[in-house]
Amino acid sequence: MQVIEAIKKTKSFVLSLEITPPDKGTSIDELFQTLDGLMQFNPQFINVTYHQPHVVYEEKDGVIYRIPKRKKPGTVGICAAITNRYQVETVPHFICGGFSKYETEDALIDLHYLGIKNILALRGDPAVGERTFIPHKDGHRYASELVRQISNMNKGIYLEELENAQPTNFCIGVAGYPEKHFEAPNFERDLQNLKHKVDQGAHYIITQMFFDFQVFKNFVERAREIGITVPIIPGIKPLTTVRQLSSIPRNFHCTIPHHIVEDMENARTKEEARKIGIKKVVELCQQLLDYKCPGLHIYTMGKGQSTADLLKALFG
What one-character-per-residue DSSP string does 151-176 give? Predict the structure, then answer.
């Protein structure tokens, strides 16, 4: 089922989980153990991340070779394994970085043949060692361009003219930033960039994590004001350690309200801080559900226990 179909059909909300592939050379069993403990909450979708490789140059016999190396390969294989094991729809992340438009088209055809119906289309982060995003010389610079290519394939339009070309059937998700993307000069420009992705064919939006309901509410209201009408699903990250109070803002460019920081820092033990963090995020989720959000998207970061604790506290 497509994400957009599930949103339309549900009487409550859609629950999705986001996971990352295991490190190269490690077993998938640990990932399965994490998901085994989360299936009790009946997620309708599981997102699987994808990241650019870091590139190294190695000399062999006087020739310099450019070698891409991936720390966490296996996104498509994991999607297939999850669907086979749990009969849950998967949403592979698909990025601009590292691919030409032709490689992108071929990869999308592979996903279509596998029966994958949903894609989260992203620009992707800069490659390791690069300060700014550098696109493939024959690839896409912006997520909106990737969305347009996928949308065209949904219409049977490929990069070369093909007779009687069969259309794909992808539901396209894109990322939204309630506190703006850190590269955008201002909030208004970032919203216009988001609208452009929707205008190119995106069906729904998943937000970056945030920890203040008013931040999300303002984001939705401003998005609606400029004509963005597609569903906006909030992205949620469990808070479990004091260390996250600095690492999350640094890595994900989002703020954590003072009352959460103060309460967690004043905790007498690590376990008390963990309980406070979970409680605060549960309260946020309750506000979002009261606001009639179409879904909750949980960033598990491979931490199955904290996600389970959050969902148990939220749903009992």
Answer: HHHHTT--SS--TTPPP---EEEEEE
Q: Cα–chain-centroid distance for residue 187?
A: 20
Domain segments of the chain as ranges: 3-315
Residues 30-86 pLDDT 10s? 999 999 999 999 999 999 999 888 777 888 888 888 777 888 999 999 999 999 999
CATH of domain 3-315: 3.20.20.220
| SS3 category, 200 | coil
Cα dihedral 31, 110, 91, 41, rounded to 10, equals -50
Task: Work out whether strand 45-48 and strand 204-209 pair parallel, antiparallel, or are unpaired.
Answer: unpaired
Burial 256-267 (b: 16+ CB within 10 A, else e): bbeebbebbeee
Cα 129 to Cα 53, 110, 111, 132, distances in angstroms: 11, 30, 29, 9
pTM given for the model: 0.95
CA distance 97 to 94: 9
